[in-house]
Specification:
Helices cover 83% and strands 0% of the residues. By secondary structure, the protein is mostly helical. Helix 1 runs antiparallel to helix 2, helix 1 runs antiparallel to helix 4 (92-114) and helix 2 (33-56) runs antiparallel to helix 3 (61-82).
């Protein structure tokens, strides 16, 4: 099975949900915990699928680099979760760094899958 394609699809949905969460955080200055947990679950599932693909075939350097950036994104997401204050929006600089790392990882996976 091609786990890279599964990882790509899961991460695209996670990124879309993350963009929605960020827009709500910027415009309304509030959190949506259920959607945040769904975003995290989709992203972790995509990360696991990518790790399974790497375990099956370690020769794809784009996937290896994507795991690095997605690991940084996961750490950033954990920081967003850990630094939140109840009832307020998350720290936007940390959210931006989290989004950049996740997006770079997703782009690398897309290059791997579609090249």
């Amino acid at each position: 099975m091609n786990y890279s394609l599964a990882a790509t699809l899961l991460l695209i949905v996670a990124v879309s949900l993350g963009l929605y969460l960020a827009s709500v955080g910027i415009r309304q200055r509030k959190r949506l915990p259920a959607l945040g947990l769904t975003h995290a679950a989709l992203a972790i599932s995509g990360f696991i699928a990518l790790c399974l693909q790497i375990a099956a075939d370690t020769s794809d350097k784009f996937n290896n680099a994507a795991v690095f950036f997605l690991t940084l994104a996961i750490i950033g997401g954990l920081m967003v979760f850990a630094l939140h204050e109840k009832g307020s929006a998350p720290s936007m600089p940390v959210v931006v760094l989290h989004a950049i790392m996740g997006s770079v990882g997703l782009i690398l996976i897309c290059v791997s899958v579609f090249s």
